Amino acid sequence: MVKISRDIPLAELTLRRYEKPYTTNKRELTRKLCLSIGLLQPGDSRDVIVDILQVLLNAKKSKKILTSEEIKDLAIKLRRKSNMPLKGIASSNVRRQLKRLKDIYLIETRQNGYRITEFENLSIIFDKRIKEVYLNSIMERVKEYFDVMK
After folding, report:
1. Cβ(107)–Cβ(98) under 8 Å?
2. Do the domain assignments include residue 15?
């Protein structure tokens, strides 16, 4: 039997360009942000990551660190308030979504809980962590492949 190896990326970032933000609806703005950075796929009905990020953004205002269970409970409340189905709200999925947010430096763990990285503004996190560190390391590696292909 032949073993097939899989190419697993060390890092991955999807960027999409949408129209300028025009709405004041927080959930819709958070959804577009998630779509823009690849946390959500266009047409995806499983969008609990939107609510998880919104919960963390709300907690940032009061500089509150939340456990994954608190995040889950608050996300359920947000989904009920928006008359959204409670799909994807299992604890295991919430933890998986938190890992995805952590992997792209939007959130961090502190005191056995989660928070927006250093309670910083998302635009600063994007500039200092995603663009300068994460995206730059991906682009440098891609360039290495281009250089080898001379």
Report:
1. yes
2. no
pLDDT digits (tens, 9 = 90+) for 37-61: 999 999 887 899 999 999 999 999 9
As beta bridge partners, residue 109 has 114
The distance from CA 37 to its chain's CA centroid, rounded to whole angstroms, is 8
DSSP states of 34-76: HHHTTSS-TT-S--HHHHHHHHHHHHHHTT--B-HHHHHHHHH
Range(s) of the domain holding residue 44 = 26-118
- Count of domains for the chain: 1
User: What CATH number did the domain enclosing 46 receive?
Assistant: 1.10.10.10
Distance, in Å, from the CA atom of 100 to the CA atom of 49, rounded to the nearest integer, reads: 9
pTM for the complete prediction?
0.88
**Tell me: the pLDDT tens digits for 52-85?**
999 999 999 999 999 999 999 999 999 999 898 8
| φ and ψ at residue 116, rounded to 5 degrees | -60, 135
Look at residue 8 in the predicted model and tell me its pLDDT.
Answer: 86
CA distance linking residue 20 with residue 13, whole number of Å: 21
What is d(CA 140, CA 28) in angstroms, rounded to the nearest whole number?
33
